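Sat 14:20. Reprocessing the chain from the morning session after the first attempt stalled halfway. Input below, unchanged.
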Amino acid sequence: MRVVTEGEIVLLYLNEKKKWLVQARSGKEFHTHVGVVKLEEIVGSPFGSSVKSTLGFDFHILFPTIRDQILSSRRPTQVLYDKDIGFVLFRLGVTSGSVVIEAGTGSGAMTASLANAVKPEGHVYSYEIRSEFAEIASRNLARLRLEKYVTIKNADARAGFGESDVDAIFVDLGDPWDVIASVHAALKGGHPMASFSPTVNQIERTVQAMKGKFVDVETLECLVRNMRVEEGRTRPATTMIGHTGYLTFARKILERSEPSVRSAT
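Finished this time. Tokens:
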């Protein structure tokens, strides 16, 4: 049975709206509106067990996922929601050992998700033109212990990428059409790319720029609706996360001037 060790990060769960990431450390306390939790009491406790606050409220000790940790990171920019992140990782086929380029680091939410997927053998090269965002993302990655799987470059992705023959590329820029040629140059033949854009105008220009360079082009929108489950009263939640952005996926084809290798069989 897995138990909490000294200094480990855990998710303290009170209810669906009240949950916190805390570090289990001797001599430390966590103050809440329903009492104080002595964090030293968490050390040695099994995940899934609970600890009582000084007012007698039970807090469940849960194992934090990468989603929990990303949501707790400092976010000066709007981050992608997990509904989009998860779909991108699946469609790009990112796995341990993959080498990935990201254009537009922002707060590093997608960066961290990519790093978590490619570790321990792969690597992410992320381009961010704004130095303050690059610094914040670097700190967030260090807090998540993912920094060694990422190289953040404080550079304009529109000037081109320093890497080539990569497995996948993700673009989250206001003008993604300006990097399509660079994406094509850096990506392995037949491999996928994805672009995130909030507006229809952006995806129109992006898809236009892909012509002759990419096939299997598809744009979609992910919508998730939660359910309120109560016996005899189960129904959709009254609120939901609606539009966040459009995802465009495509696969690189070789242009006529590019060399191709034919099978001898």
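Helices lie at 66-71, 82-92, 109-118, 131-143, 180-186, 200-210.
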